# Entry
Amino acid sequence: MAVIIIKKRTLCMVLTLLLALALLFATYQFSYHPRLVQSVNQPHIIRDVKVTRKAVAFTFDDGPDPQGTLAILKVLKKHQAKATFFMVGTQVRKYPEVARQVAREGHEIGNHGYHHNYRTYCNLEQALHDIKLNEALIHSITGQRPKLLRPPGGFLADGLVESSQKHGFNIVFWSWIQDTKDWKNPPAHRQAEHILRNIKPGQILIFHDGGGERTQTVETLDMCLERLAVEGYRFVTISELLRMERHLE
Ligand SMILES: [Zn+2]
# Structure
């Protein structure tokens, strides 16, 4: 009987702990990151684009980076692919020549915030200031004025979606199903298998060119571009994908 009591106690403790953890997680999600859940169905947030032709958009966050970005540019060139790079202002300041090379090679540059600070994107005024700061910097360095915003961490301050229209930029997320979380460096073959199994025209694929060692990302990209080209896919920037949607291509 004593054994049973101990087991019951242990079970109660484990259940209480699990409940506490679940509550903590829910509190974090809904207070600190209140717009993540609602954003899933926001009509003004771009995630998948409706196109009839086989085309997808590869996107890269957190650069420019002298290692990751340059290695990715090489693979894109090898497959004659165009992509979109969501750049962070502090990185553009550090590596302006890498940012210029991205623009020179015909890729699109998007805005990923000047400071890449999640808390800034919980407050509309601070978020807009950060966006404008990065927009001006990217324009002065590369000559491109970004029309696409991917808020760092997907954080959306109240009113940011509405004011994006007014300030002339689109908010772009990514196709949820295709997020391999490459920043955690899962093996390239596993990432590529996942992407190839779930690929559909109009998807926006998310990767990272900054934020650490990117060997697995570069290999994944190479494998995916190789295979998808054989299947007849084109690799375009997000603006090109949106243009195709407007013309129902
Ligand atoms: Zn990021």
User: Anything to note?
Assistant: Residues 61-62, 112, 116, 152 surround zinc ion (CB under 6 Å). The CA atoms of residues 90 and 114 lie 6 Å apart.
